[in-house]
Amino acid sequence: MGRISNRWTDARAVAAALLTWLGWVPAVHAAARCPIAFPGTTSEQVVRGSDRSLTVRWPAGYDPARPAPLVVLLHGSGGTGRDMLDQSRLGEAADRHGFVVAAPDGGIVAGNGFVWNIPGVPTVSGRLPDRDAPDDVAFLRQSVGWLAAIGCTQGERTYATGLSGGGRMASWLGCVAADWFAAIAPVVGLRAGRPLAGDPTRPDPASCRASRAMPVLAFAGGQDMTNPIAGGGAPYWQYPMHAAEQRWAAINGCTAPPVTRWVAPGIYEERYAACRDGAEVAARVTVAAGHVWAADNDVMWAFLSLYRRD
Fold first, then answer.
1. Reading across the β-sheet that carries 216-221, which strands appear in turn?
2. Domain-by-domain residue ranges, the chain?
3. CA separation for the pair 39, 63 (Å, rounded)
4. Under CATH, to which class is 11-304 assigned?
5. Model's pTM, two decimal places?
6. Which parts of the chain sit beneath pLDDT 50?
7. CA-based Rg of the chain, rounded to a whole angstrom?
8. What is the pLDDT of residues 43-52, one digit of tens each?
9. How many CB atoms sit inside 10 A of residue 295's CB?
């Protein structure tokens, strides 16, 4: 379970330089004390240079003078970041382990909530995102870069998780923004690109070409009828979760055959090891769970915390 390397030697410095060039953050203050943090609280923060905001959970014991790891938490379709923070109870794990949680809203309005813009993939409405829909990948990059640049978080220890549509979005970030996220942990939403046009039971390899090995830990429910692990369902789903695991294992160059074992009563795990840069791929299925937050947050953090971008 080694360290993940990429072309950046100091992600936080690069983000700071970019924002300084844009006139957002004075270079001399780029790594200064985090100016927006209040330990043990949840706050709304407008992302500098954007008209969009984040719900941020600052862990108890957070030291504004010491940047912390960041977990980006993505809500399900029709939800909001604040509701997702409450539903997942990830803030409680943040208090235990000392990471910051940022929970944004998707860019496309849907009823009383939002959905994520994954280009070329229908939303839960069955329609493709409009061409002028907000670019959620760009916004999430901007958000994590800003938090690192102002000294609040560790850019090299930034991770993504999410529920359902948010899990699909976290998967998409692994495909197209591997230079910003050290590892991903989708919940009832693991994908590895769009369904193949000629055979939707398989992912299209051309639609997910991560720029480096991406560690993946997925969580799923054996009784999930919305995003069934066996595949089928809505047009955005189709191929089995196992096919997504296999694709990520191929992206990561995993050479050992998958090992399946029971890890707790009613929970089994399939894991691919011997992967490039130690970027393992694993999926945990809670047999009796449905379309819910099926993650063990402590297990999730134990996995994510092993990785950083060097």
1. 42-46, 53-57, 100-104, 68-74, 153-163, 183-187, 216-221, 281-286, 267-272, 259-264
2. 11-304
3. 7
4. alpha beta
5. 0.89
6. 1-30
7. 18
8. 999 999 999 9
9. 27
